[in-house]
Design brief:
By secondary structure, this protein is an alpha/beta fold. Helices cover 36% and strands 9% of the residues.
Length: 192
């Protein structure tokens, strides 16, 4: 019999982060990456309830606080939620739609740090990511690059998204707080 001291150390990979999508139905169905991810089983529809009245962390491009490693434990416990809606209508509205998170549930809203889109509709545009890119970007910020790559597999511009943003994602993943993310954004993109 082997003692515990002689048992090989087998590190287990962390459980994949649960990803949720709310479809606003504003995009053409063939261009809707959220709908495709749902059909492929890579994400699920937004939950109607969760423990202690808490909701998944919601990705919101207008949230003041960027997603960072400080959110990792919450995301690992509750998941990430993306709202699949049209950038054109988002601009017209001037605000991000409220996701249905259910009665009595708090949504933690976080914006992604600045990334470059590689999808056919917004290629090369700063921060105009499609739903799949947004979720993959969030996974990358949280240090889950393998999960990000798997999520994007088979989508137009998917592999390119990781390649184009690799340096940014690695820098953001190394930031421990929202303040460090903001400093990384300034260093990468200038300003302030």
């Amino acid at each position: 019999m082997r003692s515990s001291a002689s048992t090989p150390n087998r590190s287990r990979s962390p459980r994949p982060i649960r990803l949720f999508v709310v479809l606003a139905g504003e995009d053409h169905p063939k261009a809707c990456t959220g709908r495709r991810l749902l059909r492929w089983g890579r994400v699920t529809s937004a939950p109607t309830h969760s423990p202690a009245g808490e909701a998944p962390v919601t990705l919101d491009p207008y949230a003041p606080t960027p997603l960072s490693a400080a959110d990792r434990a919450t995301v690992e416990r509750l998941g990430l939620l993306a709202v699949d809606c049209s950038w054109n209508r988002l601009g017209e509205r001037g605000r991000f739609p409220d996701a249905t998170v259910g009665p009595g549930r708090r949504a933690r809203r976080r914006r992604l740090p600045i990334l470059i889109a590689t999808n056919p509709q917004h290629y090369g545009r700063v921060a105009q990511l499609n739903t799949a890119e947004a979720l993959a970007g969030a996974l990358g910020v949280l240090g889950r690059m393998a999960e990000a790559s798997r999520l994007l597999a088979g989508l137009a511009g998917g592999e390119e998204f990781v390649a184009v943003n690799r340096d940014r994602l690695e820098r953001y993943a190394g930031a421990g707080s929202a303040e460090e993310i903001l400093a990384a954004e300034r260093a990468l993109f200038g300003g302030g």
